Amino acid sequence: MEVNPLAVILVYFDSKGDRLLYRYPYQPLGQTLKLEEPHEEQSNKKRNPFAVANTDDLLQTPTHQNPNQGQGQLQGFADDVLSALFAVKPQLCNQKFELKLNDVRFVSHPTLISVVPAATPNPASNQATSSGTASTVAVVKKQQMLINIVFALHAQASYSIVKCYHELSKRLGLALKFEEQRSGYLTEQTAYMARTHDEQQQQPLEKIFELIAERCSLAQALKSICNDLCTTGLLSTTLNQNLTLTFCLPAKAHQLHKKGSMVDPETIDRCLRALKPYHGMLLLVDFAELLDCVPPTGARMLWQLVDAYNPLISLQSMASNADLSIEHVYKLVSHLVYWAKATIIYPLCETNVYVIAPDAPLHTKSHLVEKFSTRFAGMSLFEVISDFSLPTSIGHLTTPLQQPARQGILAQMVLWMLQHHLLMQLHTYVQFMPSDDDEFGDSASCTQTQMPGSCDNLTEEEQDDPQHGGGSMLSMSSQPLPMPVNNHRRPLTEDHDSLASDNIAVQPSSSHKSNFSMTASLSTDNCDSLDSMEDEQKLKELLQVFNDADRAAIRRIPASLNVDDLSLLVKLYQMGYFKSEHHLEEIMYFENLRRSQLLQLLDKFRDVLIIYETEDPAIASMYNNK
Question: Angle at Cα 416 formed by Cα 411 and Cα 420, nearest 5°?
């Protein structure tokens, strides 16, 4: 696998020259000789002048095994060659160093360290002017030391993996520089390694490296780092019993929870940038394993968050319960996600919709089957997860008559399946998509012409007469009024007026009462008409947001006559929530809406709003890359 390192190499350079002090894993000395023997034998043989040169087919890719890689280890490079390559000049120090040889890529960060002199030099020794310059250069050289920790990788390693190993080499160089300036740790360790090489020159190189690993704590740290990178991708190493170095290789660490997933740091950063206060956190490991991923200085804040941890509440609620700012919670959660200790979810509730993940390892011989049975006695993983063959909400699997303990067990099983990436959550997205349905309007008008008493069956005079239904066609026009038109009230008013005029001469008291009632009814009609005119004007202003085609499609919806519903529709449309980029939970949070209120609006305007369910692309991108 291209994630694992082939070897880690320690190269040292000072005034005495360059030297490869340690390398792990170390192969036997005979492996290099075996690779060189065929070339030596061929050179000793007498060359046949009549032999035909073998020309390889350049269009065919050679299938021979790489001589520099054998069983995941670095082979075919002599120590003196590697030492000369990695003992770079001072101009190349304190920056990224990358070299590709055949199918091996070497990545490091050479660090130039100032050595603390053990004793001050005698000033009397520098009196000679002829050798003054040479002695000064020698002193400068003795005060400068180059340390280069090189990682040998596969040549096809991705850019993100190379970047991670360069960062690790840089951190190791800075840590050793700090310890050297504090206590001279690096000088002591390199002296032990060099002395061991000098004393054990007759021993095989493998034995020398083993002896160095037993004597030197720096060699033990490098060996532990290489082993951790090959197994878990997580390392926590203490240098000189003082400085703790923690590092995570995401491409390796996230495979512990989902095999085959190649998670790059850029993908994690893209997911964490989409983190919102309404999101939740789900731990993937036990509480005891969380301290391995943070330095001792950040353990206190982490425990504050762990004490308030609950997968049923949002990050904002956790921040409030832990007495932390939401920015600190974001940083802690991002750190846990990067280290594959946690994942981002939406807080568990009855309305969450889940479905079986398409790449869930659900074969009969999966280790998760037995693990699930051990965690939940008497339960079968296949039986439980079969309920999510189709998108299903948790509320559909529970009933009011169910015992609370049963509901709690169901929540725990759902969380367990989310931890092992067997389920994925689906969110509802909304897309504004009005239909240019002119044919629908034509068919509706044709249907109305077949009805008895329609306007097409009347003459022009009858159409102008309000008693023949002229007002009914007005109510079905493209600009309907929210209040009914009082066309049939006009004759009644005229009759009341005639009766009132007749009663003026006969009964004055009755005339006074009828005039009073007529005035009251007219004032009520005027208020209703004013309200209807104001509502109609407001509806027209709201519809100006849309173009002509969209406006016509919305007018055909009965809910568009309601000012409150149309105002909410226009508000969400202007905010850009109807572009399939925001799910319902996000709209509810930022606009402070209830789910029932939002669902009612989507149902009323279902002719122009299309909804569909899919997973959150920002969160799903972490585990969909292989």
Answer: 145
Q: Which of 10, 8, 12 is nearest to 144 (CA)?
A: 12
Q: How far apart are CA 79 and CA 197, in angstroms?
A: 12
- How many Å apart are CA 600 and CA 564, to the nearest integer? 12
Q: In the numeric block, which tokens belong to residue 419?
A: 């931890």
Number of residues assigned to the chain:
626
Tokens encoding 119: 């004793």
b/e sequence 122-155, b meaning 16+ C-beta within 10 Å: eeeeeeeeeeeeeeeeeeeeeebbbbbbbbbbbe
Q: How far is CA 601 from CA 393, 569, 570, 606, 607, in A?
A: 21, 8, 11, 8, 11
Q: What residues are paired with 594 via a beta bridge?
A: none
Give long-range contacts, CB 8 A cutoff, 24+ apart: 483-492: 483/528, 483/529, 483/531, 483/532, 483/535, 486/525, 486/529, 489/525, 490/466, 491/467
Tokens 């340690």 belong to residue: 22
Looking at residue 439, the DSSP 8-state letter turns out to be H
Per-residue pLDDT, 121: 44
Burial of 188 (0-12, 13-18, 19+ CB in 10 A): middle
Q: How far apart are CA 596 and CA 540, in angstroms?
A: 27
Question: Can you read off the two tokens belonging to residue 216?
Answer: 């030197």
Question: What is the number of H-type helices and E-type strands within the chain?
Answer: 25, 17
Of the candidates 429, 431, 417, which has an alpha carbon nearest to the alpha carbon of residue 617?
429
Q: What is the pLDDT of residue 267?
A: 86
Instruction: Give the per-residue pLDDT at 508.
Output: 44
Average pLDDT for runs of 10 along the chain of length 626? 87 85 71 38 51 46 46 65 85 90 91 69 44 44 79 91 94 94 91 91 88 93 94 90 90 81 83 90 88 75 90 94 93 92 92 91 87 92 94 88 81 94 93 70 42 41 41 33 38 41 40 46 50 80 89 90 91 93 92 93 93 86 63
Find out whether 244 and 303 touch, Cβ atoms under 8 Å.
no
Structural contact between residues 145 and 13, judged by C-beta atoms closer than 8 angstroms:
yes
Alpha helices in 232-298 (DSSP H): 250-253, 265-273
Q: Is 186 in contact with 145 (CB distance < 8 Å)?
A: yes
Q: Which amino acid is at 385?
A: I
Biggest alpha carbon–alpha carbon distance for the chain = 149
Q: Decide: 545 and 570 in contact? Cβ < 8 Å.
A: yes
Tokens at 576, concatenated: 């850009």
